[in-house]
Amino acid sequence: GQNIDQPTEMTATEGAIVQINCTYQTSGFNGLFWYQQHAGEAPTFLSYNVLDGLEEKGRFSSFLSRSKGYSYLLLKELQMKDSASYLCAVILRDYGQNFVFGPGTRLSVLP
Amino acid sequence: NAGVTQTPKFRVLKTGQSMTLLCAQDMNHEYMYWYRQDPGMGLRLIHYSVGEGTTAKGEVPDGYNVSRLKKQNFLLGLESAAPSQTSVYFCASRSLAGGPDTQYFGPGTRLTVL
User: Fold this and answer.
1) Which residue among A24, B39, B53, B100 has the highest number of C-beta atoms inside a 10 angstrom radius?
2) Which of B102, B111, B95 is nearest to B35 (CA)?
3) Is A69 on the interface with B (CB under 8 A)?
4) Kind of pairing, strands A44-49 and A32-37?
């Protein structure tokens, strides 16, 4: 079976740093994605990790440890517009290269 | 270049009614997917297609059928709607060319079954 866990909700203050964790147990692994989803909208791509280590992209960074089945998304210099759900997804090494999504973490950024 | 579009955006059905959701993409992508999203459940894969004329079952296929007669279109059908199918449905497409950011989502269809 496939299992991806994330915290349900997090709260942080504008200007701060927040780390959203994701743990996964999947049969086959071909990479891990992070998506951002604002309420009522479609998910949009944030980052991708296939090898261990840190990927940095502006205010967003994502880390992967394949041996631990663990990833995190780091958001720096939080802005009000970062209030959204953050979805962790693993891409499987199967016929359709399908994605398995975690339940998402709803982040609220407070002034 | 519209990306991925979905029709309709909203729909209310009565139990037992049927309907078809249309997904269209203009990026010449090979892979297309249908997901449903429910509160606290994340996105769950219903059906997918790896090319024109092919379809396969995902994690939650029961009660749904799909067709991919043309490469750019992926249809999701509900033959006899049930209240448990109340959800937000997202279509996505992806290119075989690879690259990390090549899965694109449509805007979603919010379906309510009474």
Assistant:
1) A24
2) B111
3) no
4) antiparallel
CB < 8 Å to A89, chain B: 43
Say if the Cβ atoms of A97 and B94 lie within 8 Å.
yes
Mean pLDDT of A52-68: 95
Per-residue pLDDT averaged across A10-37, rounded?
94
Report the half-sphere exposure of B60 (CA within 13 A, side-chain side): 15
Q: How far is A96 from chain B (nearest CA, A)?
A: 6
CB spacing of A48 vs B101 below 8 angstroms: yes
Residue range A63-85: mean pLDDT, rounded: 97
What would the mean pLDDT of A16-28 be, rounded to a whole number?
94
What integer pLDDT is reported at residue B100 of this predicted model? 63
